[in-house]
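Thread: quick sanity check before group meeting

JM: Hey all, I'm pulling together slides for Thursday and realized we never actually wrote out the predicted structure for the chain we discussed last week. Dropping the sequence here so it's in one place. If anyone has concerns about the input, flag it before I start.
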Amino acid sequence: MEETGTTLPIQRIALSEARSQLSALVQRAASQRALTAITVHDELKAYLIAPARLKALLEAERQSRPSRKGKPKLRGSLRIVGDLEAQGESPSDQLQRSALASAEAVDLE
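JM (edit): ok, ran it. Output follows.
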C-alpha cells in the first residue's frame, strides 16, 4: 500500500484481481478508509473512491478556480474602416490601421 498526501492508504490492484474482489473493494471504498487504484499492466487506470470523498474533491477543485466576478467585460465595438483586401499591405497592418482609424472615430463621437 502507498500513502498519499491525504493520509489515506492507496491499495494498488490489478484489474484482473479487482474483478474477483469487486464487492469487497467497493465496500472498502464506501467506508472512506482507503482508496483503491486499479491498474492494467502496472499502469494506473482508475480509482475506487467513496462518493462523499469525490464530491469533496470536486468542490475543492471548483473553489480553487479563479472567480470570474470582478473581471472587466469587453465593451464597445470595432469598426473596420478601409479596404482590408487592398494590395501591398499585410492583413495585420491593415487590421492595425483599421483599428486605429476606428479608435479615432470613437474618440470623435
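AS: nice. The first strand starts at residue 2 and ends at 3. The domain at 11-53 is CATH 3.40.1620 (YefM-like fold).
JM: adding both to the slides.
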